[in-house]
């Protein structure tokens, strides 16, 4: 057997590709899986926006299916649009109604007696949503009446399917995907 000098051993490239691949492969695989996970999450977000748009369009007409409430009609339309694409049992729908577009996200009006710009206990306010308490958002729960503005908020908990990535992404591997639609109800009554 021929003896190799230290320099010839150090400059040899036998097996270098295998070592390089062994170093790069885990990172490459993790990146590929991450791209797939993010792509699936973006697809789900797109589906959420589509079904929210469909449900809000039905909701603004005031249509009520026979035998169920208006809210149940809207939720059923949303579930029909997402069926087969998402686990519809995990979808939550929240609706807030307002009198005008400018009221969306605004606090109930109050008299700022001490001039600090914040509603403090004891300061008078107008209970716009009639729930008996001061709210920083004057929206009333529900699908609203004819001519009212309604904000539809649809939420879906997306679970990361790869165990390794679930520990690195989201809240223990769960992302809360949300889609919103703002519509003005037609004069349906």
Would you give an account of this structure?
The protein contains four helices and four strands. It is an alpha+beta fold and 189 residues long. A four-stranded antiparallel β-sheet has the order 2-1-3-4, with helices on one face. The radius of gyration is 28 Å and the shape is elongated. The model has no long low-confidence stretch (mean pLDDT 89).
Give a quick precis of the structure.
The chain has helices spanning 6-11, 16-59, 70-82, 163-166, and strands at 92-98, 140-141, 149-159, 174-184. It is an alpha+beta fold and 189 residues long.
- Tell me the radius of gyration: 28 Å
Quickly give the structural class: alpha+beta
- Principal-axes shape call: elongated
Query: Low-confidence segments, ≥5 residues, pLDDT <50?
Result: none
Helix content: 25-40%
| Whole-number mean pLDDT | 89
**Content of β-strand:** 15-25%
The major β-sheet equals: 4 strands, antiparallel
Distance between the termini: 98 Å
- Sheet with most strands: strand arrangement: 2-1-3-4
Count of separate DSSP helical elements: 4
Describe the protein's topology:
Layout: H1 6-11, H2 16-59, H3 70-82, E1 92-98, E2 140-141, E3 149-159, H4 163-166, E4 174-184
Antiparallel strand pairs: 1-2, 1-3, 3-4
Helix pairs in contact: 2-3
